[in-house]
Amino acid sequence: MMLMSDLLRMSFHNLLLHKVRSILTSLGVIFGVGSVIAMLAISEGAKRSALAQIESMGIDKILLFSKQPSRIGVSEGSTNASVVESYGLTTRDLTHIGKMDNVSSITGLFNSRKKVLKGLQRTDLQLVGCDFGFLENSPAKIESGRWFSKTDFTKENMVCVIGKNVKRTLFPIGSTNIVGGTVRVEDYVFRVVGILDNPYNSQYQGIGGQNDMILIPMPTARACFKSYTFTKEARMFQITKIDYDVLLVQVNDTTYIDNTAKRIAGYLNNVHGQTKDWDIVVPLELLKQQEQTQNIFTIVMGSIAGISLIVGGIGIMNIMLASVFERRKEIGTRRALGAQKADILMQFLIETVFLTTMGGVLGIALGVGIAKIITYYSAMPTVYAWWSVVLSLVISCVVGIIFGTYPAWQAAQQNPITVLRSE
Question: What is the distance between the alpha carbons of residues 404 and 321, in angstroms, rounded to a whole number?
Fold first, then answer.
């Protein structure tokens, strides 16, 4: 039996003598491991991004939204048709829900539905009235300036806090005097006192993301707009009365958040009757569902990528079998000089495992590179889990052992007399 050091030296020497063949043999594993790493990184990045979006809404919160019911009895053909609608969440709802058990606080948002223009061009920005505690119930932070003071609420000051996207849209690039400047929305002028940044740009149904909002104190919104909004759509004038577009209900104990949500839904059903002009979302339940969906997605993507590893292993086995036939003279000579079957088997097995392991290392580098390129060009987040790197290396070694054993066994079974006679 040869020493392991001699077997290693001989195996590496043979691989270096056939560099091109060695590289081609490893390609299947390189691309297989690369696809596993890249797909798992993309999947994990998408998972964390989606979960972070849901968590940003608050897993200790219940979100209530006003929803426009279907219009019945509106004359589309009238040239001067007018419609007055009143729907959605009311001040009474806010007061009643705020007194329920397990509810620690409740915060409201009111969308003025005013057109925010940049020059003559309409933007997607929203002018939104908010309660004083809104910032505490949001992952957003004040980037510069300040949040509203209690005086702003009591005196109905014409001030606003703008999202960072509002700053980019309405103010020239490089502007340094945004805080203290003014924002005009139709006939109203608001002084900017702060700039808000929500890293997740939490979205609220019917309003949009926090970074796209021009926030004003709720008393100011009531003084300017009451609870009414006036819009003109085609030939139809519409007046809409909504007290609150969104209610953020914070609970004391998330263990009972489902029961609290059911109580709120039951109350709204009783008060609003058949008019389904509200909706309810529990971020904690969404989070659990999203985790399950993303885990299944990760398994599917990993399985698809794993198939390419199996294909790579089959390719290695075929090439190693061809190598055994090509090196019959070498095998026969070594056997004639006293090498045992175990020596031949170990030599070929070492060569295969080394090729697959090196292919795994290069594949990891390829997968990381692909993920970085995707992140750079598409801004899609990618996350590398340490277990995926270790798993890829282990799988590449296992592939080498599994698919290299048969060619190595075939080499060890060569009859030296028959081989040398044929050569």
Answer: 9
Is there a single domain that holds both residue 252 and residue 385? no
In degrees and rounded to multiples of 5, residue 238 shows phi and psi of: -135, 130
Whether 360 is in a domain gets the answer yes
Task: Tell me whether residue 167 is in a domain.
Answer: yes
Beta strands in 98-145 (DSSP E): 103-111, 117-118, 121-122, 126-130, 141-145
pTM of the predicted model, to two decimals?
Answer: 0.63
Distance in Å from the first CA to the final CA of the chain: 26
Q: How far apart, in whole angstroms, are the C-alpha atoms of residue 248 and residue 65?
A: 9
User: Which two tokens mark 355?
Assistant: 């090729």
Picking from 276, 301, 333, the residue at the C-terminal end of a domain is 276
Tell me, yes or no, whether 132 and 75 share the same domain: yes
Residue at 22 is within a domain:
yes
Same-domain check for residues 381 and 403:
yes
Is 352 within 8 Å of 316 (Cβ atoms)? yes
Tens of pLDDT, residue by residue over 398-423, are 877 777 777 777 767 766 666 566 55
Q: Which two tokens stand for residue 162?
A: 């703008």
Please write the tens of the pLDDT for every residue from 7-38: 677 777 777 777 777 777 778 778 878 887 88
Burial of 169 (0-12, 13-18, 19+ CB in 10 A): middle
C-alpha distances out from residue 411 to 190, 327, 347, Å: 84, 9, 10
Pair of tokens at residue 271: 């008060």
The whole domain housing 201 covers 68-276
Q: Which residues pair with 107 in a beta bridge?
A: 248
Spatial contact of 123 and 117, defined as CB atoms under 8 Å apart: yes
- Dump pLDDT digits (tens) for 365-383: 888 888 888 888 877 778 8
